[in-house]
Here is the input.
Amino acid sequence: MVKPAPDHDIDEARVRVSEPKTTAVGVPAVLHALQIANDQMGIVRSAQTLLRVNQKDGFDCPGCAWPEEEKRHVAEFCENGAKAVAEEATVRRVGPAFFAQHSLAELRAHDDWWLGQQGRLTVPMIKDAGASHYRPISWDDALATIADALRALDDPQEAIFYTSGRASNEAAFLYQLLVRGLGTNNLPDCSNMCHESSGSALTETIGIGKGTVSLDDIHRAELLIVAGQNPGTNHPRMLSALEKAKRNGARIIAVNPLPEAGLVRFENPQTPRGVMLGGTKMADAFLQIRLGGDQALFQAIGKHLLEMHEADGGVFDTTFIEEHTSGFAAYRAALAAQGWDELEAATGFDEARLREVAEQVRASSATIVCWAMGLTQHKHSVPMLREVVNMLLLQGSIGRPGAGVCPVRGHSNVQGDRTMGIYEKPPAEFLDALDAEFGFAAPREWGYDTVEAIRAMRDGRAKVFMALGGNFASATPDTAVTEAGLERMELTVQVSTKLNRSHVVTGGRAIILPTLGRTDRDRRRGGEQRVTVEDSMGAVHASRGRLAPPSEGMLSEVAIVARLCALLFEGADAVGNAPQADWDALEHDYARIRHHISRAVPGFERFEERIEKGRTLMLPNGPRDARSFATVDGRARFTVNPLEYPRIPAGRLLLQTLRSHDQYNTTIYGKDDRYRGITGGRRVVLVNADDIRELGFADGEIVDLVSEWTGADGALQERRAEAFRLVPYPTPHGNAAAYYPETNVLVPLDSVADVSGTPTSKAVVVRLEARAAGAAGASGAAAGAADGAAEG
Here is the structure.
């Protein structure tokens, strides 16, 4: 059982609850962003930094992956983007004196928010075997220690190399080359935990694991279905695109178990209408669907369209279906056999409501479906997303202006990392191109994804863990198992900008390598360097930081990986089958890396030329560009997917984990969730008021959350997260929500989506258990004492 770190959140008196907001952004968002920026950076540094975010001569926001328009506003950032920039560009520093003062045991007692607030890491640090503190180490010694540990492995499969979505294309390309040069494809990444289901479903059905729309398509759509996504918190700049679509006449349908402020009304702070005239009403319809019912929704739409086409004709794009698709007959037969009663049970809507929604789809000749983790983190997520494709194919809504699929990626270059080869199941064509470019033989055996990597650590099949960014301990499921696995490692390595929980849950030895961030100036021997990133719609552009680095001699991710490659692949003790390159030249001139990319990765021809002067390189997209589908039969594929949806046992709730508004992935900016009316705490669980009463609890009561899951052996498994305050909230009956990473402990390691292996973080069966009187207050008092002692 994982107990919560001492934290003010479990002190009931400190959490305040008010009515959820019905508008997003506006002047309050601007003021809050500026306050955080000033606290972290100061007034002058804030102005210098924020005015360069997402500009053609500036740096890419380290937050989300939403694309920019060609013509950009002088303030091309959102509230959470400003927070992300402020966290990275902070003037706070974490150096050797900090680690001398704080033992690992003390640091483990703090939560992710406190750790992140300490500031930027400045020098390499090492924790020796058996030591209680980190100590400084030189760059040369740190990198040599890592290289020696990798050489000493009995099998390259004993090493695991994780990647977050923050790594640049150049860093990611070198990183995957390093890993494959060692002889493994163990490249788990954050995609495994978020959009892997999207990639699996889309690759199978349309031949590409990415979306098929551009920003201009969003503006031109007649109907936008935004499902399982909260743009107001997770991708606030998307609201501007949706607002533009609305002005052009589009309708928006929001599909979500929770009402989210950004899809109710948007007050654009960059327009007079948004500041003074009440903003823009966003969703024309809100479908408060039951958790996991989205597959049934898209089947219901398809079934209605089928019935209308057979009655009147003219609903389907029959030419497109005949010329570009396969599997339609089997799909039609399956829909005809599907009863409405089960579609009603899965979604929570009656047949009339489902047909009403389907009529809006029928009336649209340009439909886009956007989604995020609300659709990807269920056991049946891949069939669910196949049904999204099925619905769009009926009307030919792929490869048409204003129509297509739009999986909205969460992290700024998570899609680019995959394009660069960060993937445990690489296609043979990519490996062949690497072999030809670097004169070696890349391994063909598939590696570990995130869940399998944790199993390998748990089972003693791994010895070295290295992370290029991210916060693996807090991002992954089944916290107790994950942390125990990390502690079994002989060596853990974190390449990071800031302190997080993964630095304090370590192997026998642990190394922290501080690195440059997006906002930092990167000068190498070859001059000032730039990197590139790919946004959520397949557009690649350059990014160049302008701030002085946090410490002298700090290395970029590119330089760190290049130096490791030199240590491992050059000289008399080079590992066998090493890729051949001028590693020193690559470290000091990133254009040389882009030259290699242009020769090894399709779509990057004339890479350097095409990103000059702030230009954007649009990657080829077969379905979008030419209705070309790289599937097994060369056609877009209709699929048959037996209906699945969660059944909730009596006396239990189905829990989804989610972000607060003061959060980006595992980075916690503060303890509030302004749009949901939560202030001063994160250990809250949002539950339908009737469910609270029927389960025998009261508003504000402190409870434990206990997840229940039946494993493959038929045994019931339980996990516990302690001390959460019950908050009545407008959720569907039987559904609940709470923040991660605090609730990651509840997600069983082996509870994953079929096909994709993504953890089922949106479908956790839980029961509520009352706590002994006084337990919450005592925990809160202990938290106050612990934080006070640490900060004093």
In short: The chain has a mean pLDDT of 92. Residues 380 and 644 are 7 Å apart (CA to CA).
